[in-house]
Amino acid sequence: MDIFFTIQTDDPTILQELLGKPSDNCRSIAIPGIGQLTLENRRLEKSFVTPETLTFALAFASGVSSGILANWLYDKLKGRKLKLLIEEHEIRVEKTEIFAIVDRITRK
User: Fold this and answer.
1) 48-59 tens-digit pLDDT
2) May I ask the CATH class of domain 2-17+26-106?
């Protein structure tokens, strides 16, 4: 199962936070106990407000709990200035909001 999410940010460290050590070839990383995170698209905007849009696919097995997924994503994004869209729904970077949508997606 996959969850697709998009981050719009001017934070130059967010990609390293999600994928680890920066590399031009690093588009995917295994997340122990969770699954695989893949950078699907990276677009630089010509706007001073939101200069970069990153789209990810988080693949996970059906046995992984929505709480583990939501906590992992929240821990990576908390305290950062960004706009988060999960499955095209804008979500505040708060544990309860992330959990609610991840839980809804994993129950499909």
Assistant:
1) 666 789 999 999
2) alpha beta
Instruction: Supply 25's token pair.
Output: 């070839």
Q: Which residue in 59, 7, 3, 50 sits closest to 28, CA to CA? A: 59
Distances from the Cα of 17 to the Cα of 1, 41, 78, 107, angstroms: 23, 16, 11, 28
| Positions in the chain whose pLDDT score sits under 50 | none
Three-state secondary structure of 45-108: CCCCCCCEEEEEEEEECCCCCHHHHHHHHHHHHCCCCEEEEECCEEECCCHHHHHHHHHHHHCC
Burial 24-52 (b: 16+ CB within 10 A, else e): eeeeeeebeebbebbbeeeeeeeeeeeeb
